[in-house]
Amino acid sequence: MHPLDNVIWNALTTRQTEFAEGAGAARRFMREVTLLSAFEKPDDAGYAALAEVVGIGGTSAVFLDNPYETRAGWDWVAGAGLLQMVCENGHAADVPISPNVEIVPLGRSDSTEMIELTTLTQPGPFGKRTHELGTYIGIRHSGRLAAMAGERLRVDGFTEVSAVCTHPDYLGRGYAGLLMSEVMRGIRARGETPILHVRADNARAIGLYQRLGFSIRKRGHFAVLRWEGKKD
User: Domains in the chain, start-ordered, CATH in brackets?
Assistant: First the structure.
């Protein structure tokens, strides 16, 4: 299996096991880290194992090769088409850092603001400990967090660029591309390849990612599911 196939499962069973909960055919990230979860295979045994991991009323976000099909005991909360993109063109598309913009590291003390920004812009699930998954950086204006980006999933040879978001008041200034390029520089410096995941209907974001050198590797789907338990 390629490391980017079933990427959440591979992350939770290789480079990010310290954040994993569960055993057997399913894993999830700790709840305070992110909603992302995975099963070894999307079959009856996989879904049953995931139900054991999340418990009654538990919610998980999973990546699937095919659209989610209704299963007993599971409620579909949200979902959409998903693209997995990879940047394999070296430094060709790097955006230079503007002398008028200061990029700052983000961490535990910034967690509340990071959650507020991701809640507003909805780049994907983000919890109060998501920042522990990798490097997170941002741009501030008058002390206000205007934009951010960071790293999330890690598998052999690859690290995911994630949580790329800009406050609506600061759109159009090129902050997303600038922060992404800086995160990508750090990934490449470790000898790894940047990847990302994006909703298939997010044309604006996809256009930016393509300009930065990303290309589509795989088309799939994501689904946010809640386990309600099988009815007698």
Answer: 7-82+220-227 (3.40.630.30), 85-218 (3.40.630.30)
